């Protein structure tokens, strides 16, 4: 009697049958690698903490220059531990910025088994695109958006006759909120690529609801941006609206492939 040898399962089927706890172990391993990368990056960045702080206050210094005030003169602290905490947080987010390609690589490695074979060829494109989008958004905020916010907020204080006496930690909060938040917003095209690829959104549907998108974007911009409503809301809202229409093109390309 002939014994039939079962054919080996394709790689996709094997991965599909991967037990739940193996996915958990896989996630744990990737999280550990990401944490180690962030920790090493933070240690390296902390060695350059004073240079990083000068870079963080540079946009404000340019805004203060017309008023004859330098950045060191504008800052004061009342908590002995505040400078250390500020430098540690700044070092951590600098590390996150620098190792973001590696973090996105770990993210891709985790979601890769859930994709079809023909979708896995986007690995390099995913890592490069997500990294470029995040870094581009952060640079846009650093050079354009945050200085605009600072200028508007400082103008309000000057009109009220107030003197700058800033605390480092609240300043770092709004700085990171603007720079990191804008970097995350610039990931919208990548998100919409997968939403379009999996059939959750269509270009026609996005264009049909563009008016609702404009209203939602303007409301979100008014809520999340400080300062003058007309200028900052329109500026940030215009960026988000441009990303929305870029995402329409991305969804169209994703559904063709």
What does this structure look like?
- The protein has twelve helices and no strands.
- By secondary structure, it is an all-alpha fold.
- Helix 6 crosses helix 7 (123-159) and helix 11 (210-224) crosses helix 12 (229-256).
- The longest helix is centred in the middle third of the chain and has 37 residues, at 123-159.
- The model is unreliable at 6-16 (pLDDT under 50).
List the helices and strands and how they pair.
Layout: H1 11-16, H2 20-46, H3 49-64, H4 71-74, H5 82-98, H6 100-111, H7 123-159, H8 168-185, H9 188-197, H10 203-208, H11 210-224, H12 229-256
Helix pairs in contact: 2-5, 2-6, 3-5, 3-7, 5-8, 6-7, 7-8, 9-12, 11-12
Give the proportion of residues in helices: over 70%
Q: Stretches where pLDDT falls below 50 for ≥5 residues? A: 6-16
Classification by helices and strands: mainly alpha
Percent of residues in beta strands?
A: under 5%
Radius of gyration (Å): 23 Å
| Number of helices, counting only DSSP H or I runs of 4 residues or more | 12
Note the overall shape. Answer: flat
Biggest sheet architecture: none
Order of helix and strand elements from N to C terminus: HHHHHHHHHHHH
Mean pLDDT: 83
Care to count the β-strands?
0
N-to-C terminal Cα separation, in Å?
48 Å
């Amino acid at each position: 009697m002939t014994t039939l040898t079962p054919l080996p399962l394709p790689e996709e089927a094997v991965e599909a049958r991967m037990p739940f706890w193996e996915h958990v172990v896989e996630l744990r391993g990737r999280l550990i690698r990401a944490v180690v990368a962030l920790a090493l990056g933070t240690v390296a960045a902390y060695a350059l903490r004073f240079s990083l702080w000068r870079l963080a206050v540079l946009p404000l210094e340019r805004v203060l220059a017309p008023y004859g005030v330098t950045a060191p003169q504008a800052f004061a602290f009342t908590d002995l531990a505040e400078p250390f905490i500020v430098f540690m947080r700044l070092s951590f987010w600098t590390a996150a910025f620098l190792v973001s390609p590696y973090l996105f690589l770990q993210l891709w490695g985790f979601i890769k088994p859930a994709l079809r074979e023909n979708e896995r060829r986007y690995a390099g494109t995913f890592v490069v695109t997500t990294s470029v989008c995040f870094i581009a958004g952060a640079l846009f905020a650093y050079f354009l958006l945050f200085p605009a916010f600072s200028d508007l907020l400082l103008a309000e204080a000057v009109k009220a006759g107030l003197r700058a006496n800033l605390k480092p930690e609240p300043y770092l909060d709004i700085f990171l909120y603007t720079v990191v938040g804008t970097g995350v917003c610039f990931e919208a095209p990548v998100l919409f690529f997968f939403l379009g690829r999996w059939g959750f959104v269509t270009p026609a549907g996005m264009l049909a609801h563009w008016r609702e998108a404009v209203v939602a974007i303007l409301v979100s911009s008014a809520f999340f941006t400080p300062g003058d409503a007309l200028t900052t809301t329109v500026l940030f809202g215009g960026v988000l609206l441009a990303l929305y229409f870029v995402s329409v093109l991305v969804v169209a390309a994703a559904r063709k492939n």
